Amino acid sequence: MTQAQEYSVEQIEASYNLRDLRPDYENTMVPGWVERSACFRAEHESARLDIAYGDGKRDQLDLFPVADPKAPFLAYIHGGYWQRGDKSVYSFLARPFVAQGISVALVNYVFCPNVRLSAIAPQVRRAL
User: What is the pLDDT of residues 36-87, one digit of tens each?
Assistant: First the structure.
């Protein structure tokens, strides 16, 4: 067994901040996702958007339920290095699951540094 490798702050930052590897990400990827997501939200008649699960303005989720109340359920918590992002960008990801009879929720959460990282997991648990 080998001793655990120690990482520098720079190595840790590079491992978590994948956006730095794609400087074109905001301009080449996100606009298409936003458009596809808006289309899906408009098409899904039973969508319930911005459901509050707490008192904060980011304590919200979007729910894309299917007709069967006993259907499987998928919760999607967007990435963003705990510092950015919004559930509305990723609505398009629900489409294939809903088409297969799976209800989907997309969850927002408060960003760091406004809260400590340890506050995000309990927040997501409240959403679920």
Answer: 999 999 999 999 999 999 998 999 999 999 999 999 999 999 876 667 789 9
- Burial pattern 81-99, b for ≥16 Cβ within 10 A else e, equals ebeebebbbbbbbbbebbe
Environment class of residue 7 by beta-carbon count within 10 Å: exposed (0-12), middle (13-18) or buried (19+)?
exposed
pTM for the model = 0.82
Q: What are phi and psi of 72, to 5 degrees?
A: -60, 160
Answer yes or no: are the C-beta atoms of 30 and 89 closer than 8 Å: yes
C-alpha distances (whole Å) from 53 to each of 19, 46, 62, 75 are: 29, 19, 11, 14
Residue 76 dihedral angles phi and psi, to the nearest 5°:
-115, 125
Instruction: State how far the Cα of 46 lies from the Cα of 110, in Å rounded to an integer.
Output: 26
Structural contact between residues 87 and 61, judged by C-beta atoms closer than 8 angstroms: yes
Q: In angstroms, rounded to a whole number, what is the distance separating the alpha carbons of residues 37 and 93?
A: 8
